[in-house]
Amino acid sequence: MSGIYAQIISELYGLNRDDIFKRDENSFFKYCFSSEINHIPSKYSENRKIVPERKKLLTNEFYRKFSNIIIGTKTYLKLGEISEIFGVPNKWLKILLGKIGKKQREITAFKCAFDYPNIIVCNQLSGAAGWSNEAIKNLVGNLKK
Description:
Layout: H1 3-13, H2 19-22, H3 52-58, H4 61-64, E1 68-72, H5 79-86, E2 92-100, E3 105-112, E4 118-122, H6 133-141
Parallel strand pairs: 1-4
Antiparallel strand pairs: 2-3, 3-4
Helix pairs in contact: 1-6
């Protein structure tokens, strides 16, 4: 599991990052549900859209039961599609999470303007996406405990 996911969980729940995986083999999943939206590895998925079967799966009531939802995709799903899937009005706030690199590139996300569920749409949560510790802390700060 990605170190970024572990960092988010440790920040959100006040846990030691390493302990999330040491308690037992399923301890990570006691704190979150994680799933991939894409069906093709990103190396091959440029300009692709979510397949209809996956979009339909996401409309299941199961996903609406979570109080915090992070959607790590800015290319597979448009904000309007996410609003439709989760049954929330299409009103999003752009949030600055941090800056990274010599050119201080902004790391941004979109947060649903409505409280429940708390939905944040951001870049993929991988090391290659260029997440800084500051950005992860700010992402967590936008989540509800």
